[in-house]
Specification:
Length: 100
């Protein structure tokens, strides 16, 4: 399994969603190249606490934009096979939770 570097930035919670008290959880699959760089991403699932269908779509879009803004720059210690770095797909869950 690839390991994320501690220096990877975390996505910012969209202010409008924080102000409205909307939470979410996005699961993405990242293509981590053998050099440790993210070369692609696919959304596996997205859930929000928004109530209407339109609000849910808008919230999911805002959360995804926040995520994509940072994951492009993420770096990993690559996964290895028999001591050699390999490219893999790596699943990541990103929660957007309100805290006190």
């Amino acid at each position: 399994m690839p390991r994320p570097l501690a220096s990877n930035a975390q996505p910012s919670y969209p202010k409008s969603l924080r102000d409205e008290g909307i939470t979410g959880r996005i699961v993405i699959k990242l293509h981590v190249h053998r050099d440790g760089v993210v070369r692609g991403a696919k959304v596996l699932s997205k859930k929000t606490s928004a109530t209407t269908e339109d609000e849910q779509k808008a919230a999911a879009k805002a959360f995804l934009q926040a995520i994509l803004k940072v994951v492009k720059g993420w770096k990993f210690e690559p996964a290895t096979l028999e001591g050699q770095p390999i490219s893999v797909w790596h699943k990541v869950t990103i929660p957007f939770e309100l805290t006190d």
